[in-house]
Give the backbone structure.
Amino acid sequence: MLRYKDLGQMDYLAALEVQERLVRRKQLDTSSDILLFVEHPHVFTIGRGGDDANILAPREVPVHRTGRGGDVTYHGPGQLVAYPIVDLRSRLRKDVHRYVRNLELSGIRTLRDFGLEATRRPPYTGIWIGDRKIAAIGVAVRRCITFHGLALNVNTDLSYFERIIPCGLAWAQVTSMQQELAREQDLAEVRERFQYHFAEIFGYHAVVEWTERPNDLNVLNGLNDLNP
């Protein structure tokens, strides 16, 4: 079973604490895998191997170093951020590399639904349209449980990427669905299509929404509601 939840707009560190608590819980029991969706206020994050020099001019935007893979990226309004809390001990997932490929594939199929032909671009992670990166992926795994995840630029203000060297790739451009399709996109529809493809690719037999909309404190303290 997959449980999913749209957390709405939530501060980056608050969302990270939600993930940390869910990871600790899944290490102790066999509760359902969870797919969290969130929009963050403007923030730059640096992965565990990232170079501080790739943050050029953050100005008023906060910067957080975090435990995911990858280098520096931006999160902000209009971006679909997906945080899967998945148990890699399942036979369906096999290993971290397969997990990342399936996460990329979930985004690629989502984009295809909107008429965009996106691809992988080894050895770089993420999702690409030519030389333009439309989704960044940075994951972490703790005792076989995943967290962090994927950020897909839907209606993202791309000017914020000019303040960093995204993913440490000076040659790469950054794009969004809005830019590629020349019109604003329905973020809820994109989220729904991503959820559908994620569940299909990872082989879940049931997908259930966690329908309660608690405030941040209740999200942190009310995780028993996520029991299968």
In short: Residues 27 and 143 are 7 Å apart (CA to CA).
